[in-house]
Amino acid sequence: xxxxxxxxxxxxxxxxxxxxxxxxxxxxxxxTLLMFDSAKTVQDLQEVSATFERIGDVEKTQWxxxxxxxLCQTNIGWxxxxxxxxxxxxxxxAIIAKADALSPNNSEVxxxxxxxxxxxxxxxxxxxxxxxxxxxxxxxxKAKLADASNPRPYYLEGANIFNxxxxxxxxxxxxxxxxEKAMALFNAAKPLPLYPSWGKKQTADMLxxxx
Amino acid sequence: xxxxxxxxxSSMVLMVVLANFSQAQIRVSGITKDNRGHVLGGTNIxxxxxxxxxxxxxxxxxxxxxxxxxxxxxxxxxxxxxTVQQKVTITxxxxxxxxxxxxxxxxxxxxxxxxxxxEASDRKxxxxxxxxxxxxxxxxxxxxxxxxxxxLPGAQQIGEQEGLFVRGGASYETxxxxxxxxxxxxxxxxxxxxAQRGRFSPFLFKGTVFTTGGYSALYGEALSAxxxxxxxxxxxxxxxxxxxxPLFVGxxxxxxxxxxxxxxxxNYGYTNVALYFQVVKQTPDYFTMPEFHTADANFxxxxxxxxxxxxxxxxxxxxxxxxxxxxxxxxxxxxxxxxNNNWYNNLSWKExxxxxxxxxxxxxxxxxxxxxxxxxxxxxxxxxxxxALYIDSLNFNLNSRQDLSQIKAVFEKRISGISTFxxxxxxxxxxxxxxxxxxxxxxxxxxxxxxxxxxxxxxxxDLYITNGLAAKIGGRFEQSSLINKTNxxxxxxxxxxxxxxxxxxxxxxxxxxxxxxxxxxxTTNLGFTKATHYIINYQKMNKDYTxxxxxxxxxxxxxxxxxxxxxxxxxxxxxGVELFWRDKKTIKGLDYWxxxxxxxxKRDYLYFPQQLQPNFAASHTASVVAKKFITDWKAGINFSYxxxxxxxxxxxxxxxxxxxxxxxxQGTTIPYNNMSLSFEYxxxxxxxxxxxxxxxxxxxxxxxxxxxxYGYNYSHDGSIKQAITPPANQFFFIGCFFSWGVDRSQxxxxxxx
Lengths: 211, 753
Prior knowledge:
- The structure holds two protein chains of two kinds.
- By secondary structure, chain A is an all-alpha fold.
- Chain A contains nine helices and no strands.
- Chain A has helices at 2-38, 42-59, 64-79, 85-102, 107-123, 125-146, 152-163, 172-188, 200-210.
- Chain B is built from seven helices and 39 strands.
- Chain B is mainly beta.
- Chain B has a 22-stranded antiparallel barrel. Chain B has a five-stranded mixed beta sheet with strand order 9-12-13-10-11, with no helix packed on it. In chain B, strands 1, 4, 7 and 8 form a four-stranded mixed beta sheet that branches.
């Protein structure tokens, strides 16, 4: 009997510790996501990204911290026009590789890859469109295949088309139906706690510009 | 029991909570610097195994608080630097810990040697010099690689002969390499005083490196320059193409396998200029209209470990015949006929062998056959006998064939960081046969045959000392069985970063080349000809613009003299300064480049009596190339202007004692001017559902109709002098290119986004 009780107690303690750890993770993620939302400068984003990376390194089984760490880096890419996009891409892809290993064929991770390719393309569209433009589109196609209900690949596709000159098959008229599709998916989306939910406001802004 | 558990649990929880709150947070702070002592912002500091850490600010300082106690590892990470770990024990006191990070040498950040070389690919950096699209949109090039390359500094504007004349070098001093192996006949067979086009389309290649000196030990048998072409890997998509113009028709198919691991393709083209020559009058009288059949095929296979196997073959057959007045007597004409067959094959295999090893294997085989004849004809275009030896001896038949087989193996190993060591060997087996007949010397089928086994071994190290300092050190050993000589050529170059996007490079190298076959027919008792290059270069380059200035000195030794005796007693030098500026940004949508070359060169070779400026060297050469794509019109307009000062020309005859040639007449030609325009129109651009993609292309060279004089021909005694001019002052082209299966608007977007 004693043995059983002590075993039981040990089990409870472990369980408790695990829950505590899980709570700590959730709490830390929530805190860091709040920091992410309020990050305004490149320096802020670097710190948030580093914090997400640390969480990922401690947890070892969660893909979300690495996802957000990489998302911060792509935001830096959009924000800081002077940063070396190739170096940034190399760094970000290394973080993404960790998320990829923990959660293969993940729609959200494909979205990141698409954004990185777009940033690399924009360095010198003249000589890079063939390679990176195609890579960006391919990643979005994979993102849609992996999760048809994810609105973000549609938002990104819409943005790509919106930014392509009308004469080359881009422009707001062509982008609008895609943003509308993204918006419909955003309205239907019920993201799990801590899961990505960004993009709805941006889609609404883009739709407004398409009018 | 239950009660006990509950109490136990709540006390546990309480303990955990109390433990957290009773402990004070400890501050960990410090400063991060690089190994030169400069503060380093953006360093990511992590207390390993915890969520705690910080990022250093722009003054290098970092600070964070932690509840943790005990022994930990603290890590400092920064992009472009080696990660550093330190042990730390956290007790109740604040911890100060500083880091010094060493720069990591990476391919992205490291300088590369640029002395002497124009790299036109996306391999390393965003900014490129010439892409295949750049070549086809260079107004005066008409899709010919060499013509576009001539708008870069270092190359001469030579119109009477094909090839690249680089920094005082003759055209045979520049070699072309495709996927590592040399190309024996990169141009269509020469016709006196008329430059021929290159055999290869710019769309075959993803990267073009034009090195005007100081190049790698991997390449040999070129005294002056190397045009290094790297063929494309797999195409982006399957497609069918067709082209139509008054000058040619063509069709092709390129099939990419579903798994995108392999592809194959075939193309055929037929060119006939008869219609064009009826509309645009040519100076020579063509009795056989130039006609070309070309066919090519390829396959490409991606291997398991990311390697690539590529095969390309092309066959062409062409004929032409033309009459020009004989310079010695206006009663007679020289009728020249040519038939050429050329077959070129290239097989290459690139593979990652693992553990930092890479392998590049290349094999090529080409065979080129020419049937050339010249006949003296009278005013009725009938064969004629004049009785004057200097005219009658121009009657000849030449049947020649050149075969070249090559294999080349290069192995590469990462030594430390990104520093690389590579070595390898190549073997060229060449057979040259010529049968020469001339009635009036009673020579029938005089047979010349040259067989050479050329073996080379080479080794080279790319050393990256820091991101800002790199060196390339190599050597090349060659042996030719035909002349039974060996040589060793050391090569060294250095690159040093002087500021953001800016660098200085220096290069030194020795270069050897076998004498030309036309000389070896007389004797094989000759040695290698030699050039020594010294180059210094400054370059500032980013994605929007490129600026470079380069100065060089080249010394020629052991050039072949053919008079009074045939030996290696020739010599010469070339020195100069070159400028290049390319700007894609300042004027929106306009991409332009300007190049200027100053050249001072003299050489004593062939029958020259002393060192002279050769007739293929102008002192000043400049080009302006501009392109603009107008999105709303779906059209592009391209402009080029090329200027070169006059080139020297000479008329020489042996002196009375036949000991040397003496200059009987000399002068300088008028300057060369050529302004060209070309247009492309892409009507289906951006039409997403268009099945056919169409490009309409038109070009005019020498819009202002300047007269060009490339030099002078003299009668046998020098009493008559005739300007060498192009067959027609201008060239007009219109054509349309169709493709199905791939949206070519991507190409156009390249120009404009």
